[in-house]
Design goal:
alpha/beta; Peroxisomal Thiolase, Chain A, domain 1; four-stranded mixed beta sheet; binds coenzyme A
C-alpha cells in the first residue's frame, strides 16, 4: 500500500483587512472586548466580486508548484467548502478549469470547519487504494459572504481565505499515521445557514430576516469544541500508541483563542506546541488548517520527521483529526 502524505502546500488570503476597530465602532464595543472574547485582532475579507474559487485557485497553484508538479499531473481535486461559488456546479470543477488540471476529476466536500480533515482522509484513501496518484485538496471559504453583518457574535469571528495541499505517495514511514472522523447531526441547529437550500428556498421574507446567513449558538458550540477537541487528542494518541511528547506541533482549526487555551490547559500542552494565527485571520473555516500549516512551514516551524496533529471541528456537528509524520524532500 505504501505511505501517503503531503507533497506540497500553499495559501492565499484576500488583501482587504477588517480590524477590530471597525467592528468595535459598528457594534458600540471596544477593540479589547472583541480580542478578549476571541483572540482575534483582524481578519481578511474578500471583495464583493471575489468568490471562493478565486481564492482556491491561487492557493491550489501555489501548492502544486511547491510539490514540483504541473496542473496536468493532478488526477483528483477535492474542494472543502461551505461557501461554494454557487449551489452547482461544484467549486472543485471551477478550480479544475481555473488551474488547467485537464486530467482531474473534481468534487466538493461539505463538512464546514472540519472540511479540510474530511478532505484529507478522503484524499489519503484514494491514494492508498491506488485509484489516484496526486490529489489536490483545497480548503477555501468566504464566510464574510454568509455573515449577518448586524450579528456581533458571528461578525467578530469569521474571515476569508484558502489553503491547499497536494496529497500523494511519500517514502515508507512518513505521511499519515492515523486519523479519526466523526459527526453528530443532532447538533445541526447549533450552527447553520437556515435558508437558501431545499428546506427553505429563498423568498423575499427569508432574505429580509437574513436567514440566508449564519445562525450560531456560540455558547453551545464553544462547549462542544472544547469537549470534542480534548476527546480527539486522547483518542488519536491511543489509536496510534504515541504520547503527547511525540507530537511536535498541533495545528488546530482556528475557531477562538479561548478554545485553544482551554484545551492546552486541560491537557497541559505547552503554548509553543499549539499553533495559533487566529489573531490575524479569524476563523477561516475549512481554510484555517491548511493556511496555518503553510504558514508554519514557511516560517521554518516544521522539519522533516516532525509529528503533526491536525484537529478540526465545526458545524454538522462534525469533527476530525489526522496525525502525520512530515516528509520534506
Ligand atoms: C461567540 C463567542 C465569541 C461569544 O463569546 P462570549 O460572549 O464570551 O461567551 P458565550 O456567552 O457565548 O459563552 C461562552 C461559554 O463557553 C464556556 N466556556 C468558556 N471558557 C471555558 C472553558 N475554559 N472551559 C469550558 N467552557 C468554557 C462557558 O460555558 C461560557 O459560557 P458561560 O460564561 O455562560 O459559562 C463565543 O461564544 C464563541 O466563540 N463560541 C464558539 C463559536 C465558534 O467557534 N464557532 C465556530 C465553530 S467552528
Amino acid at each position: 500500500m505504501g505511505s501517503v502524505g503531503i507533497l506540497g502546500y500553499g495559501y492565499y488570503l484576500p488583501e482587504l483587512i477588517m480590524t477590530n476597530h471597525e467592528l468595535a465602532i459598528r457594534f458600540g464595543k471596544t477593540e479589547n472586548w472583541i480580542e478578549e472574547r476571541t483572540g482575534i485582532k483582524e481578519r481578511r475579507i474578500a471583495k464583493y466580486n471575489t468568490a471562493t474559487s478565486d481564492l482556491a485557485i491561487k492557493a491550489a497553484l501555489a501548492a502544486i508548484e511547491k510539490a514540483n508538479l504541473l496542473p496536468e499531473d493532478i488526477d483528483l481535486i477535492i474542494v472543502a467548502t461551505t461557501t461554494p461559488d454557487m449551489i452547482f456546479p461544484s467549486t472543485a470543477c471551477l478550480v479544475q478549469n481555473g488551474i488547467g488540471a485537464c486530467n482531474a476529476a473534481a468534487f466538493d466536500i461539505s463538512a464546514a470547519c472540519t472540511g479540510f480533515i474530511y478532505g484529507l482522509d478522503t484524499a489519503v484513501s484514494y491514494v492508498s487504494s491506488g485509484q489516484y496518484n496526486n490529489v489536490l485538496l483545497v480548503g477555501a471559504d468566504t464566510y464574510s459572504k454568509i455573515t449577518n453583518h448586524n450579528d456581533i457574535n458571528t461578525s467578530i469571528l469569521f474571515g476569508d481565505g484558502a489553503g491547499a495541499v497536494v496529497v500523494g505517495k511519500v517514502p515508507e514511514g512518513f505521511g499519515v499515521l492515523g486519523s479519526i472522523m466523526g459527526a453528530d447531526g443532532s447538533g445541526a441547529d447549533l450552527l447553520k445557514v437556515p435558508a437558501g437550500g431545499s428546506r427553505q428556498p429563498l423568498t423575499h421574507g427569508l432574505l429580509d430576516n437574513r436567514l440566508n446567513t449564519i445562525v450560531m449558538n456560540g455558547r453551545e458550540v464553544f462547549q462542544f469544541a472544547i469537549r470534542i477537541f480534548e476527546n480527539m487528542i486522547n483518542q488519536i494518541i491511543d489509536k496510534t500508541r504515541l504520547t503527547m511528547e511525540d507530537i511536535s506541533l498541533i495545528i488546530p482549526h482556528q475557531a477562538n483563542k479561548r478554545i485553544l487555551a482551554a484545551v492546552s490547559e486541560k491537557l497541559k500542552i505547552p503554548p509553543e506546541k499549539m499553533y495559533c494565527n487566529i489573531e490575524y485571520y479569524g476563523n477561516m473555516s475549512s481554510a484555517s488548517i491548511p493556511v496555518a500549516l503553510s504558514e508554519a512551514c514557511n516560517n521554518d516551524k516544521i522539519k522533516k520527521g516532525d509529528i503533526l496533529l491536525f484537529v478540526g471541528f465545526g458545524a454538522g456537528l462534525t469533527w476530525g483529526t489526522s496525525l502525520i509524520k512530515w516528509y520534506d524532500r
